[in-house]
Specification:
By secondary structure, the protein is α/β, with parallel strands linked by helices. It contains 16 helices and 13 strands. It has helices at residues 26-36, 58-67, 92-104, 110-115, 117-128, 154-161, 185-198, 200-206, 233-243, 264-270, 284-299, 315-325, 357-367, 375-383, 394-398, 402-408; strands spanning 4-6, 51-52, 72-76, 86-91, 147-148, 167-171, 179-184, 225-228, 247-251, 258-263, 308-310, 329-333, 351-356. A four-stranded mixed sheet has the order 1-8-9-10. Helix 3 (92-104) packs across helix 9, helix 3 (92-104) packs across helix 10 (264-270) and helix 7 crosses helix 13 (357-367). It is globular and about 65 Å long. It starts with a strand and ends in a 52-residue tail after the last helix.
Length: 460
């Protein structure tokens, strides 16, 4: 098995699609919608807005992201005459994309840099010693800024999140250029879980097994992105960037058993504060232990949370799993025997697909008859290397090695193997010779010390 791959092989004896799909009565749907229309988006705010100037360095933005313990920063517009006060958002997915760009920059061809002004700007800024955060905002292509008015309802949130956006800003009632907070897709999912407890008809709907529902990636094992436990952190970073996902499955090397998952948030909270870029060569099984240890010791949570469900798992259980693991997706496994309401931590057999927060919210969006809901198409667009423009895309450039990553990903530690001990991931190696393979001058000079951060796991 290769060190990291998208599991796209055909399944033997895979789950058969049900002959019928659960239908919702018009009366139930209308009752639900009557309530959903009365809920204001502003009442679901789960994060304050922390903003930074557009010219703030990526280093300082990373520090703030960690020290404030928030999912993202709002980057103020560098054009004071702009209609919108914010240029964009900056989150852990963007951090991962930037670090991957730094670690794979040596694979670029001269034509690549000439063909992409944005990457050219980042490279030039790094050589000058300072990369402003506005250049890296939404580098991951997963962090588009969305804004909703003060009087927006839950249905507006559903329309935004069901199309793949993870968070949205809510405007103030007094000034549309001011904002009162952010709402995340997971917060909306948690609201639906609570609503089900108070609404028997909706609880009955959530009590259907997921195989009976129109979930786009349930049996699409090509949607599963995975790496083996002996792969390195850098391998995982590259996979998440090139496939446009916020987390990947980690499998046991020999058995293919699902061990755990690694997310862009894990990368941001562990890799960025590290005082040595040698952490990029850390095997994922060791990295997982480091991630989970604080959870088990401080919160009483499972040291290795189970990130899987079965085809027969109830939708309500799947929602609970997503919320309990703080993940954006769980992995669907083929059942090898009688179905169990509580999956075992050890899974033998194939991973057959995924169920994400977006997939579930898209189900509810279809109940609300919201148009143009296709989460699978959104996922495809993020992962695609094609560009609608004549120039090569950002992702194509900083993942130039994608074409051979399936066969040579085990060699990726050489990217940083020659870096001297004690040099952090964000340090610049400015005096490397032309033959050196290092994290190049894209990385920044960093402070001698960083604030300690809470390493509690939070999936991106």
């Amino acid at each position: 098995m290769s060190q990291g791959k998208r599991l796209s092989q055909s399944l033997t004896g895979s789950w058969k699609e049900p002959s019928t799909i659960i239908n919702i009565s018009n009366d139930d749907a209308e009752d639900w919608l009557a309530t959903w229309r009365t809920v204001f988006a502003r009442d679901l705010i789960d994060s304050r807005i922390v903003s930074v100037d557009a010219e703030t360095s990526v280093e300082d933005a990373c520090d703030m992201l960690l020290s404030e313990n928030i999912p993202c920063l709002a980057v103020r517009s560098y054009d004071l005459t702009a209609a919108e006060p914010y240029h964009g958002l900056f989150d852990h997915a963007d951090v991962n994309a930037f670090l991957t760009l730094a670690a794979t920059r040596h694979t670029f061809l001269p034509d690549d840099l000439r063909g992409n002004p944005r990457v050219n700007e980042i490279v030039a800024a790094a050589k000058a010693g300072r990369v402003p955060v506005h250049l890296v905002s939404n580098l991951s292509d997963k962090n588009v800024i969305e804004i909703l008015p003060h009087n927006a309802t839950l249905l507006s949130l559903l329309a935004v999140f069901a199309r793949g956006t993870h968070r949205t800003l809510i405007q103030s009632s007094e000034d549309p250029r001011e904002f009162i907070g952010m709402v995340s897709d997971r917060r909306l999912l948690a609201w639906f879980a609570l609503y089900a407890r108070e609404t028997p008809s909706f609880q009955r709907y959530l009590s259907n097994p997921i195989y009976s529902l129109s979930l786009p990636s349930l049996n699409l094992n090509a949607a599963v992105v995975a790496a083996t436990s002996s792969a390195t952190i850098l391998d995982a970073m590259k996979l998440m960037s090139e496939q446009g996902v916020s987390s990947i499955a980690v499998l046991e090397d020999v058995s293919g058993t699902l061990l755990s998952a690694v997310s862009v948030t894990d990368i941001g909270k562990i890799v960025v504060p590290s005082q040595s870029n040698q952490i990029l060569t850390t095997p994922l099984h060791q990295f997982i232990s480091q991630i989970k240890e604080p959870d088990g010791s401080t919160d009483g949570a499972d040291k290795y949370p189970v990130y899987s469900v079965f085809h027969s798992s109830l939708l309500s259980y799947t929602i609970e799993k997503l919320l309990a693991t703080n993940a954006h997706r769980v992995f669907v496994t083929k059942e090898s025997g009688a179905a169990s309401p509580v999956p075992s931590p050890a899974f033998h057999g194939n991973l057959t697909g995924i169920v994400s927060v977006v997939d579930i919210l898209s189900l509810f969006a279809r109940v609300a008859k919201i148009p143009n809901i296709d989460p699978q198409m959104q996922r495809h667009r993020r992962a695609s290397s094609a560009s609608s423009q004549s120039s090569i895309s950002d992702r194509d450039i900083f993942l130039r090695s994608r074409s051979n990553s399936r066969t040579s990903i085990r060699h990726s530690p050489s990217v940083i193997a020659s870096s001297p001990p004690g040099v952090s991931v964000l340090d610049s190696v400015r005096n490397a010779g032309p033959g050196a393979v290092l994290v190049d001058p894209l990385s920044l000079q960093r402070k001698e010390s960083r604030r300690s951060v809470n390493l509690k796991r939070e999936s991106g």
